[in-house]
Amino acid sequence: MKPILILTALEVERQAIEKHLTNIETENHPATGTDYKKGEYIKGDGTAVSVIVGRTDQTNVNASLETERALEYYKPAYIFFSGVAGGLKDVGVGDIVIGQNVIGIERGKEKKDTFFPRPQFGASSYELERLASNYSTSQLWKNRAKELLDAEFNPEIKVFTGTIASGEKVDASIESDLHKRIEQNASHALAIEMEGLGFLEVCRTRPTVKSLLLRGISDMVEDKTTMDSKGSQPYASQNVSAFLFGVIDNINFGNEQSETPTSKLTEIMTKLYPGGLRENGIWENAGGNLALIPLAQSGKGQWVEAIRILTRGGGGNITAKTLIEAVLQDYAQNIDLLALYKSL
């Protein structure tokens, strides 16, 4: 069984992960000397799983570099990014956000008095996102959440699934230009952080590696200093790491080799084209008709629905084969695509 790879940005986040592991040893990358912690996690059914924990440091640039390095070295089947984030809407300190997708908020064109956004997108694996969402409503998690709860922060620990905003700056004031930009261009985002886009951008190049972004809310925009002084970062790190290992408990590792071509295609398309069917004109380039697909949803949602329709013979003059052929025009060397194409 391949190891599970877990990345964090801060040391407090890594320490929270390590509390769930036994037999921890330090392992160094042979070329760069990058340090990783290697340990074992014992699942609820008694199965031992090898876990590698790495720390990227802050910013999307660092996250992308370290994600690429770790993926290439360990070649895992599953990779997670776990850590804290600032809350933007609906959430409270200690809550958990399952990162269905991430939006990069700082890319764009700045003119005299106007910023024209050119957002980037990333998406977690559909399979892991759904697994995490289902776990969040289970009695097992509800019981665990009661054990973790510190009522000084909030009366309960809630779990949300949605969009996370990602940039290179800490949003510490609702009066800041950054915050106003978020409200204008990413008003649906539940939380803000600095690594998720870099993480998922690298994961998209390996679409059959299952990836998931999880965040624990450590503060809201205006109360960061106050919450930090109360220990909100260790608290949020504790909560999100416990949730993560609950998700891992529910992964059926024996099912890795039985994934269907349809599920593989969905995974690949949501990773390579997280913006949806319109991105790069991919659906129409493959012979598809956009008018036949419900587009009033996230990019990931579009792909899930489109592949479902495609497998039933709909969606226009398009098949799985013509779709992959069109994608290969953009990603000619992608080994996951080539392997899937040969299997059809």
Automatic annotation (TrEMBL):
Alphabetically, which GO biological process terms does the record hold?
Answer: L-methionine salvage from S-adenosylmethionine; nucleoside metabolic process
User: Molecular function terms in GO for this entry?
Assistant: adenosylhomocysteine nucleosidase activity; methylthioadenosine nucleosidase activity
**InterPro entries assigned:** Nucleoside_phosphorylase_d, Nucleoside_phosphorylase_sf
Q: Name one GO cellular component term.
A: cytosol
Q: Report domain Nucleoside phosphorylase positions.
A: 3-246
Name of a matching Pfam family:
PNP_UDP_1
Q: Cross-referenced SUPFAM superfamilies, in alphabetical order?
A: Purine and uridine phosphorylases
Lineage: superkingdom: Bacteria
Its protein name is: Nucleoside phosphorylase
Q: Which organism is it from?
A: Chryseobacterium limigenitum
**Organism lineage string:** Bacteria, Pseudomonadati, Bacteroidota, Flavobacteriia, Flavobacteriales
